[in-house]
Structure formats: structure tokens, C-alpha cells
Amino acid sequence: MANYYTDIPELKFHLNNPMMKRICELKERNYRDKDEFDYAPLDFEDAVDSYDKVLEITGEITGEIIAPNAEGVDTEGPHCANGRVEYAYEEPTKSRTLM
Question: Considering the entire predicted model, what is its pTM?
Fold first, then answer.
């Protein structure tokens, strides 16, 4: 199973940057939403854990769906057929219609 995030350790390095603590405080507005929303991060460790999980999911989507389809999408590209936009899907010969 390909995962661009877990397969490339240099990407996770950025979450361990010393400035991340301050960046998270600013981005999460000093964690003031934690009392109002159950999904809001409680503190720095919780925020970084959430970011890590989102990046894992994004890495999996990138490795399992986007990368295998990239060549077909680049080769065929989107085109208009019968008044609809069709995007390349998996192989250059297959297309998917956008409704």
C-alpha cells in the first residue's frame, strides 16, 4: 500500500520543527475552540496528532488513487463530450463523466 506521507520521512520532519508549537498556537487560536467543539485540538500534542492523521490519509489517497491515475490524466486530460466534461480515469482509454 503506497502512502506518500509515511514512505517519505522527510515530510514528517516538518511536524517536528521547533516553530510548530507557536504555529499551532496561532493557527488553533490558542486552542480556545476546545470547549465548544469536541473535534477541536486540546493542546499542541493533540493538534500535531490531528495534523499527522490528516497527512497520513492524504498520503494514502495520493499514493493509492492520484499517482496511479496521473499518467492517464496527463495523457488524455479532460475533454468535452455531449455537453459534459469527462476526466481521464485510471487508464487513458477509460473516462469518467462529471455530472
Answer: 0.74
